[in-house]
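Hello, quick one for you while I still have it in my head. A protein chain has come my way and I'm curious about its shape. I'm sending you its amino acid sequence along with the backbone structure tokens. I'd be grateful if you could look everything over and explain what you see. Here's the protein in full, and shout if anything looks odd to you:
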Amino acid sequence: MASTREYLRPDVVSRLKNMQLRARLVVEGFVAGLHQSPYHGFSVEFAEHRPYMPGDPLKHVDWKVFGKTDRFYVKEFEEETNLKTYLLLDISKSMDYGTVSVTKLQYASFLIAALAFLMIQQRDAVGLVYYDTELRAYLPPRSMRSYLNVLLSHLENLRPSGRTDIGRNLHAVAERIHRRGLVIVLSDFLDEPEKILSGLRHFRHDGHEVLVFHILDPMERRFAFRSDSRFIDMETDEEMPTQPWHIRRDYRRLLEEFVETLKRGCREQLVDYNLLDTSTPFDTALFQYLKKRKRLR
């Protein structure tokens, strides 16, 4: 397991120069480790071609493959599948925070790139939405291989911007989706829990399946600062000097309550909730997606 998990660590993935390589490394490392504990029994099958069968139209034969192998294979056309997935990404300023090898936004974008790569390899349709106080891009789901480059190009050029309004944007996306699908939301969720849960409830009311990845930085979870500090709100620039050890206990208690509120609200709506930090290997999240997908097929 250690050898494959090495390629699923955010610090390793972040060293690669572009999103295509990052996505490929994560997915190939993930697939290679699926047969090992704790993933025994799960598999990922990629449909490329199938052998020619009597009666298949000759126009569907892949002649390039025939030239290389001297065998007849039929192209598996990239049609719309029953599973449409919408990847929703928070790009507000708070997502630009990071104390390890990657920021929250980088971690989320690498994870989305891997998810998109995996989905399109499996002939699932995948779309991308990103937002701050309003929707900044809405790319509808497609299953064509060439569409992956479009998605990765957007992810490569993302820049954190402004404040966030998660609830409003979840409602806005729900209004635009007219066919039931899988909605995956990635955010630090530093917003009002009731508005967030209201947006998630909208998706569930419309019959969508929902998977949530709550992404925090390790220091946001532990609050292990050891010296006098000046904390700056990345979305409002408001500053607060303090001695962290004096507020650590209260901070952790409030964070626990915040997380529990989200978790409980998701559970009540049958939304899959997953808390991650930016040091978590990517296979943890990919496995949660794979479990969800298996239940939906």
Notes: The radius of gyration is 21 Å. Confidence is low (pLDDT under 50) at residues 77-81. Strands lie at 49-51, 73-75, 84-90, 125-131, 135-142, 182-187, 209-216, 229-232, 239-242, 272-277. The domain at 84-296 is CATH 3.40.50.410 (Rossmann fold).
